[in-house]
């Protein structure tokens, strides 16, 4: 899996890294136990400061997506990621609410929203 960061984006680089690794997991391009590049190696590969990569890895570690071992390096969590619980569903709702609100203001219909959401789901699950 090759990460592609957009240095001109308003989205912080560490967030782009997190999002792309999680997307790789969703698409099963990254499987439990797969090794990720070291902080320094990934930073050098994509031309960014290793502290930025470290921040992304720490966020992924806190979320239970990866494990960081002194000897094994960085790996996708070998036991997989914890299933969605009430706390995750509440977080999901709070993140979606502003997007849905903006969509309503911009006259996106519920049907369009569902169609877009379904297409993204199918893409990530490899159903398209």
Annotation keywords:
three-stranded antiparallel sheet, single chain, Arc Repressor Mutant, subunit A, 5 helices, 128 residues, 8% strand, 3 strands, 2 domains, mainly alpha
3D architecture notes:
The protein is built from five helices and three strands. The chain has 128 residues and is mainly alpha-helical. The protein folds into two domains: 13-76, Arc Repressor Mutant, subunit A; 86-125, no CATH class. It has a three-stranded antiparallel sheet. A hairpin with a 3-residue loop joins strand 2 (66-69) and strand 3. Helix 1 (13-26) packs across helix 3 and helix 2 (39-46) packs across helix 3. The model has no long low-confidence stretch (mean pLDDT 94). It holds the Pfam family GntR. InterPro entries: Tscrpt_reg_HTH_GntR, WH-like_DNA-bd_sf, WH_DNA-bd_sf.
Compact summary:
The protein has 128 residues and is mainly alpha-helical. It is built from 5 helices and 3 strands, in the order H-E-H-H-E-E-H-H. Strands 1-3-2 form a 3-stranded antiparallel β-sheet.
Strand order of the largest sheet: 1-3-2
CA-atom Rg in angstroms: 16 Å
* Mean pLDDT across every amino acid position: 94
Number of strands: 3
Number of domains: 2
Quickly give the CATH architecture of the largest domain. Orthogonal Bundle
What is the H level of CATH, i.e. the homologous superfamily of the largest domain?
Answer: Winged helix-like DNA-binding domain superfamily/Winged helix DNA-binding domain
Shape: globular
Cα end-to-end separation? 20 Å
Structural class: mainly alpha
- Estimate the strand proportion: 5-15%
């Amino acid at each position: 899996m090759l990460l592609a960061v957009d240095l001109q984006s308003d989205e912080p680089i560490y967030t782009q890294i997190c999002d792309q690794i999680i997307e790789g997991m969703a698409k099963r391009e990254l499987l439990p136990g797969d090794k990720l590049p070291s902080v320094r190696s990934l930073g050098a590969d994509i031309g960014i400061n290793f502290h930025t990569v470290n921040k992304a890895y720490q966020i992924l570690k806190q979320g239970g997506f990866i494990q960081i071992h002194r000897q094994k390096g960085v790996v996708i969590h070998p036991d997989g990621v914890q299933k969605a619980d009430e706390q995750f569903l509440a977080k999901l709702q709070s993140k979606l609410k502003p997007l849905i609100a903006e969509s309503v203001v911009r006259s996106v219909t519920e049907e369009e929203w569902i169609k877009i959401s379904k297409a993204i789901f199918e893409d990530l699950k490899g159903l398209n």
